[in-house]
Amino acid sequence: AFPKRIFSGIQPTGIPHIGNYLGAVTNWVRLQEASQQDEVIFCVVDMHSITLPQDPQQLKNNIYDMVACLLACGIDPKKSILFQQSAVQQHAELAWVLGCITTMKRLGHLPQWKTKSAKRREGVCVGLYTYPVLMSADILLYKATHVPVGDDQIQHVELTQDIARVFNNLYGNFFPRPQVLFSEVKKVKSLRDPSSKMSKSDSSHLSRIELTDTDKEIHMKFRKAVTDFTSAVTYDPDRLGVTNIINIHSAFTGITPDKICDDVKNLTTAEYKKVVADAVIENLTPVRDEITRLQQEKHYIEDILKLGADRARTIAMETYNDVKKLVGF
Ligand code: ADP
Ligand code: NA
């Protein structure tokens, strides 16, 4: 039996929005609080982010920003291992070994490859094709048993399960079969187009609320959020815009959607948006203040990352040294 270990990664793509916060990061903090030391590993996956073109200075800043955000949201480097992927060389080394037991065909079938490569017909890089192998290496390097990811990553965890099985068939029972840990939070939708999810890649900044938005911006974004022509606040699946706003309110306050609708039955949608904006501001203000403070503390962030990398490397080296022996290196 393999001891419990949780691994998850997040790309350093700028300040997280409330979808990332509610759907991923707060869930990570919950898992951290429910776990023992060294059981929970969070990785800022900078090597994944260069599968798309990046400005070096921007990437560097994004890494600092992401760490600042994770710390501000409650990831505690005393309880979890928090580190930067490229600081632990065994990720790339194990990815090579795993790539040699993974077929082109298996990778070509992955839905995310199909959609991402279709968008970039010209000059799509090898890294974009093989990045699910690197993700498998991220997970297996720590013999992780549980992987909290969003639905868009489920196929990649299934690939990891397959690769672990192929490796184990060749070399003996070495890797656990990692399981997906689902988040219970409903997907946060775009404020401009509530039929699609809130996303960093959306070109409109009005579509998402970022953790460092000012009070004014948060009010403005809710005011401009797309709803419909019905003034009452009701939790109706056909009313995508209002339902999304109620879900956001509910996720931040813990009040159920039904109770919310009852509480605000005398308000119009426009008035209700102000209530939600205030609730979001109240919850995010301490997080935002802490992010802003940590953004000025580059040396502290570097120390945290160094400590995290040292702890991650200890585990990674042990796994990879065993892999080398098994493979015959
Ligand atoms: P984005 O689409 O904004 O680039 P990522 O793909 O980097 O987000 O996702 C990072 C994490 O945040 C993943 O665990 C993902 O499932 C979660 N996540 C992203 N967008 C949302 C959303 N709108 N609602 C809930 N969770 C989300
Ligand atoms: Na994404």
TrEMBL record:
Pfam families, sorted: tRNA-synt_1b
- Compartments in which it is found: Mitochondrion
The highest taxon in the source lineage is Eukaryota
- State which residue ranges cross the membrane: none
Question: What Enzyme Commission number(s) does the record list for this chain?
Answer: 6.1.1.2
CDD domains, per database record: TrpRS_core
Going by the UniProt record, its keywords in alphabetical order are: Aminoacyl-tRNA synthetase, ATP-binding, Ligase, Nucleotide-binding, Protein biosynthesis, Signal
Which reaction does this enzyme catalyse, per its entry? tRNA(Trp) + L-tryptophan + ATP = L-tryptophyl-tRNA(Trp) + AMP + diphosphate + H(+)
> By its UniProt entry, which InterPro entries does this protein fall under?
aa-tRNA-synth_I_CS (IPR001412), aa-tRNA-synth_Ic (IPR002305), Rossmann-like_a/b/a_fold (IPR014729), Trp-tRNA-ligase (IPR002306), Trp-tRNA-ligase_bac-type (IPR024109), Trp-tRNA_synthetase (IPR050203)
EC class, as a word, reads ligase
Could you tell me which HAMAP family the record lists for this protein? Trp_tRNA_synth_B (MF_00140_B)
Q: Which family does it belong to?
A: Belongs to the class-I aminoacyl-tRNA synthetase family.
**What protein name applies here?**
tryptophan--tRNA ligase
This protein's species is Saccoglossus kowalevskii (Acorn worm)
What gene is behind this protein?
Answer: LOC100378683
